[in-house]
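Catalogue entry: protein

Sequence with per-residue tokens
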Amino acid sequence: MFTTLPNDGVHVGMVKYLAPLPAGSARFRLWLVAGMAMNAAVLLVGAVLLLLARTPLAGVFQPTVSWVLLFALGISLLTGHAFLVSVLLAAGRLRAYVWLTVVLSALGVLAVGVALAAGWEVRWALLAYLLAQGGTLLVTMVVAARAGLLPDMRGRISPAALRALSHFLLMALSLLLFSKAVDFAMRAVMIRYFSLAQTDLWQAVAKLSDNYTMVFSAVMGSVFYPRLAALIHQPAALSTYMRTVLLLLAPVLALGLGALFLMRHWLLPLLFDQHFAAAAPLLGPQLLGDWAKFLTWTLLFLLSARAQVGRYVAVQAGSAVLYAVLLAVLLPRFGLLGAPLAHAARFGVLLVGTGVGFRKYWLPASTV
């Protein structure tokens, strides 16, 4: 949640505005400075709020001032890495993005292994994980500098650039409020409505979904969105690109998610525990909803690429309200199965709505 505003807001805007620009140009430097300034402001606000609150994290421990400061340092380093990665993606440096992601993951796992072997408490193991990943910033800086993507960034901060990036910050804020916060509230509702054992079955299916969703998001954010941002002022090429991507994604996603469904009785016990095999009936509607979700997100990238804040926030808010209504109707009638059914119905409705709204981007020109 602490990285949502920079990663899903500022960095998305950076990719949009940097993608068409030559590295090192005056406008390129302008956007870099504005992005750094906005990230610094967001991180400072987050650190102050956490220092003021300092409530027990996940019911496990009470964070001290020193822990919060180290946490803020780790988040800042990790955000700096993600910032430079967005610059690399805007410049089409996909290979660098891939191996930097591998380095990031390896350092985190290594740090946790060392912390566990040394018998550290959970609070310090978490910090070790975060700070080790944040250390990737040094490597990323070297890669970006060698690619000529770190020009001299001294100079004024452009108010116009800050205003433009703030639009993306608002979109990320709506994502935080209407998506991530809803997910936390959803778990609380499930625990109140069902037993912990039943809730864990739903949580296992949701966790499996989260994992392949991260893969989808990484691929789309690193390959699809930068190209989309570069084509945003070329309507004909943009429509052709969107149509090609959607015609490829729809069957590929169906095949991949269908394979997971066929393996559900073997996969769930393998990834979790034997008793999680009872979650198999929940997986079908979850996978169907995820298929619709991925296609919906692909279309909604157009709102980000066009910086259409009002429409983006409206879709996020409408999606959250629709989900709440569906849960209120389906949970009492279908029990635990009502949660994935509500998920599938929610994104089914959104897919139809976005498909109609963006039909000129995926239908042949002669049929629009």
In short: The chain has two domains: 4-163, 194-367.
